Amino acid sequence: MNIRILIADDQDLIRTGLRLFLQTQDGIEVVGEAADGVEAIEQARALQPDVVLLDIRMPRMDGVEAAARLTQLDPAPRVLVLTTFDLDEYVFGALRAGAAGFLLKDARREKLIEAIRVVHTGDALLSPSVTRRLVAEFAAGAGPVGPPPAVLDELTPREREVLALVARGLSNREIGERLVITDATVKSHFGQILFKLGLRDRVQAVVFAYEHGIVTAGSA
């Protein structure tokens, strides 16, 4: 079954370019386009796409608000944020609003296809540049939002270790190499982390870890 895509961007040339490229890819179908956040919500309700490629800066409703509303739909599409700048001030807000991933508009075409497939499977795409941005947010003074919640006590020492490494931007393979365990074991630990903390995906896990001081800016 094809992955159904909705493209939301206020620039017609970008929408056209994305559509023409994606239409050539096996297993991907572009079902609609939107020129702003309001239209993105309307089109998502009507077309029920699997993944929304969402520009972060749009008129009438920006990508942060649109991401929050899109992820509340039933069924809810996965939201992949597209932006021109890796330090866009809206990126952090969009991730907290429920976006499943983040990609620069100048990323390689192969990276775009990979990102679409990753978020469609229910995983999240969090690039090293975004992880560095999260670190910068807290280094700049945001800091933990409060004391660690009691639910953290339910994590085993190994699960806390895995969560800390996820928050630093390591992939499952890299975590496995660091801890000398298999990829499957890492996935199992991470699944338990999401379940115990009531989180949806890798993005939420990284934000949670920084917000609650599990890792701190500058930690190795």
Automatic annotation (TrEMBL):
Ranges where the HTH luxR-type domain occurs: 148-213
Matching SMART domains: HTH_LUXR, REC
Family matches, as InterPro entries: CheY-like_superfamily, NreC/VraR/RcsB-like_REC, Sig_transdc_resp-reg_C-effctor, Sig_transdc_resp-reg_receiver, Tscrpt_reg_LuxR_C, WalR-like
Protein name: Response regulator transcription factor
Coiled coil: none
Keywords, alphabetical: DNA-binding, Phosphoprotein, Transcription, Transcription regulation
One Pfam family linked to the record: Response_reg
SUPFAM superfamilies noted in UniProt: C-terminal effector domain of the bipartite response regulators, CheY-like
Record-annotated Response regulatory domain positions: 4-120
Domain of life where this protein originates: Bacteria
